[in-house]
Amino acid sequence: MNERLDPAAWLRLRETVAGFVATAPAQGSEVAELAAQLAAQGWQPRDVCLRLQRMVHRLAGSAGSLGYADLSLAAVALERLIRALDEEGGGLPSGVVLEQVALLAGVVAETASALAVNDSALCPGRPRLACVGIDLGAPVVLTVGVDPDIERALRDVGLLALDGGEMALEDGAADPLPPLAGVIVSLEAAGDPDARAWLKGVGQAGIPLLVVGGADTFLGRVRAHRLGADVYLPQASAEEAVDRLVQIIGEGGQEPLRVLMIEDDPLMGGLVSGVLVDAGLETELLVQPEAVLDRLEAFEPDVLLVNLGLRPYDGAEVTAVVRGAPAWGGVPIVALAEPRQTAVKRAALIAGVDLVLSRPVRPDVLVTALREQGRRGRRAREAHRHETETGLLTAEAMHEQLHREVARAQRSGVPLAVVLLDIDRLRALLLTHGPRAGGVVMRLVALSVRRRLRGTDVAGRCCGSAVAMILPGATVTQAMKVVDTILAEIHASRVMMLEGALTFTVSAGVAGLEGQGVSLLDAMAATRDLMTRAEEALSEARRRGGACVVQGSLPP
Amino acid sequence: MGARGDPEHVLIVDDDPALRAVAEIALGELGGLRVSVAGDEAEARARAAECNPDLVVMDLVLDEVDGRDVWRILAARTPPPEAVIFLTAAGGVEREALRAEPHCVGVLTKPFDPLTLADVVRALWRSRS
Q1: Measured between beta carbons, which residues in chain A are less than 8 angstroms from residue B113?
Q2: Of the candidates A66, A274, A278, which has its C-beta nearest B18's C-beta?
Q3: Are residues B21 and A83, on separate chains, in Cβ contact within 8 Å?
Q4: I want to staple A211 with a disulfide (CB 3.0 to 4.6 A). Which of A100, A224, A367, B6 is the partner?
Q5: Pfam families, per this entry (chain A) (predicted)?
Q6: Contact (Cβ atoms closer than 8 angstroms) between residue A209 and residue A229
Q7: Which residues of B touch A19 (CB under 8 A)?
């Protein structure tokens, strides 16, 4: 904010923040005292409740707007809980709820007493990184100590490479992070303690972090892990590294993480889901544990949050059921437990809970835990769907995806194109160059295909060595152009093998769903028809001698 | 002063001095709008008489007073402001009920982001029918 303000306004902003910081500790401790007093008196009398509600409301609003996100998060959660208690009316709140009130009030008091003007996101004490507040016109990837080839490869895919090494590392960990699409850092450059602290901030902010370089050893991998790397690629080419970063950015940027919360107490459920939604997590609250398998299928969560004290089925039993379901055996599960229930916690861990948090739980701790576990869950599910070698979707995942996209295209009436690519005379190529050549050629095709994918496109394995691309929203004519580019790139490339240069060609068939008539078939029949037409087109391309693309017949 | 399609004068009514100040900087210095501020009903009336605001940004909870009542008082003056935007807490009073208030063009949730406040206010102002 400071870059865009004139000095007088900047001074006023600082004064405003300073004024808030000077009064916040008193407000925070008054909130804590009132909350304790109300809890001791069974949440009575009402006028004191209202006074507390107003105080917390004010604190929540001003803290957030003045750049103190942590204080605001705790105060908003406390406000929500107080309002829910007020709306419940009568009846003594449960011990769990009162404990949560006490904890949140404590966090508010503690955080408010520790505020400093320079900690505000609006008036940081140190200068920010240079790219803050400047519209650079493209997503920025900060590189630290990496090869210039990587910077070139970033530019090739439309990302702006910014050599942030000096700025980021000199300024240290206290700096707020600029709006970055991702960070690529070399293991060597990340050895410095300042760099480590700064990179920790990168991880906490949820910015994709790719670590490159170094020797591919156990120690190297441990160091990359300690830096919070999303992916460590010790010996990748610049293109592979950038390709992988784009993939992670795509995964992270596409959709918010999804949390399925199983909690039978609607008051706590409402409070917690409110906190999660505020933190940008898509949250579904399930009050009946017996519906968990249906909700898993429908909502496809990245992480589960389970109350261990559910009735009549406890959290460990719910966990055991989830772990037993073939498709959901690996979904991360975070559990909330009462502090002294050691046996319950042990049973939950044995049943397969990944992390147990004791109640009352701080909202920031819960959000961080769910983000980390959720990211792990999403990555694991994505990895399961992708081949390690080529980064393409597996044939099974591709089939599911195709069916989904066809159904979507039928519903929306938006066109859909499918491309099938296959390597010409693969058997002869393997006989001449040996089996290793097959893998090399396949990776090259996969890389070329993946570089042409837009956000909604997918590419995966089809039958045998064929690769399929699904291009939602594209007409057959548009898809033909994409294929022409891919074929030209592949045919121009030369692979160096021990026994000399290897060149090869690829054939392709394109078919599409366009116009009317398509919706007359059901999704299953339309998928079959689409694939048959693409296969026929590919066969025709082969018959013509390969190295070309053929447009398939029109839909029936 | 403002670009075409901007409100001529915005009146911010909020009882929290820190919030008032940051909203004033966000809309004024940062957003390039002409802004006045008020902390309560009496001050809101006095400021409105001076500056004839065409847009009011109104906190829903003003100490003991409901921001909707203050808005109705301001809306009854001549010339009347064209539109109001209510500021409320996350998960507070139903947004739908607030939107139903006469001339309400939007409801903003606190805490707001000062960096984007002016853009949001402009977009809401332009959405009025």
Answers
A1: 65
A2: A66
A3: no
A4: A224
A5: GGDEF (PF00990), Hpt (PF01627), Response_reg (PF00072)
A6: yes
A7: 17-18, 21
Domain boundary among A253, A276, A300: A253
Contacts of residue B28 in chain A, CB cutoff 8 Å?
A: 9
Are the Cβ atoms of B16 and A58 closer than 8 angstroms?
Answer: yes
Mean pLDDT, chain A, integer: 83
Q: By the CB < 8 Å criterion, does B111 face chain A?
A: yes
A271: nearest CA in chain B? B91
Closest CA to A204 of A151, A129, A145, A279: A279
- Residue B64 sits at the chain A interface (C-beta within 8 Å): no
A402 and A546 belong to one structural domain = yes
CB of B85 closer than 8 Å to CB of B106:
yes
Q: B37 pairs with which residues across the strands?
A: B12
In angstroms, the CA A421 to CA A398 distance is: 14
Q: Which residue of A has its CA nearest to B117?
A: A65
All domains of chain B in start order, with CATH: 10-122 (3.40.50.2300)
Q: Where do runs of H (alpha helix) occur along A89-126?
A: 95-113
Q: Do A20 and B115 touch (CB under 8 A)?
A: no
Give the CA distances from residue B27 to residues A1, A470, B20, B57, in Å, rounded to whole numbers and listed in that order: 13, 46, 11, 11
Domain that holds residue A67: 2-119
Residue A287 is classified by DSSP as S
Q: What is the value of pTM for the model shown? A: 0.62
Picking from A442, A415, A445, the residue whose alpha carbon sits closest to that of residue A511 is A415
Given a cut of 70, is residue A166 above it in pLDDT?
no
**Contact between chains at A12 and B21 (C-beta distance less than 8 A):** yes
Residues of chain A with pLDDT > 70, as a percent, come to 88
CATH code of the domain containing A351? 3.40.50.2300
B21 chain-A contacts, CB cut-off 8 A: 12, 16, 19
Contact A17, A62 (CB under 8 A): no
State how far the Cα of A88 lies from the Cα of A359, in Å rounded to an integer. Answer: 21
Q: Which residues of A touch B111 (CB under 8 A)?
A: 60-65, 72, 76
Give helix A69-88 / helix A95-113 axis angle, nearest 10°. 150
Cα nearest neighbour of A1 on chain B: B115
* Nearest alpha-carbon partner for A421 in A375, A374, A459, A478: A459
pLDDT tens-place string over residues B84-105: 999 887 555 577 788 888 899 9
B30/chain A closest Cα distance in angstroms:
6
Q: Could you tell me the CATH number of the domain that includes residue A539?
A: 3.30.70.270
For residue A258, give the H/E element and its range.
strand A258-262
In whole angstroms, give the CA distance from residue A268 to residue A285.
10
Q: Which tens digit of pLDDT belongs to each residue from A106-130?
A: 999 999 998 888 788 887 653 333 3
Domain boundary among A253, A270, A286: A253
Pairing of strands A416-423, A303-307: unpaired
Q: Which two tokens stand for residue A29?
A: 């401790």
d(CA A299, CA A490): 40
Residue A531 backbone dihedrals phi, psi, to 5 degrees: -65, -40
Q: Please name the amino acid found at residue A528.
A: R
Domains of chain A: total: 4
As given in the structure block, the two tokens for residue A202 are 């990168």
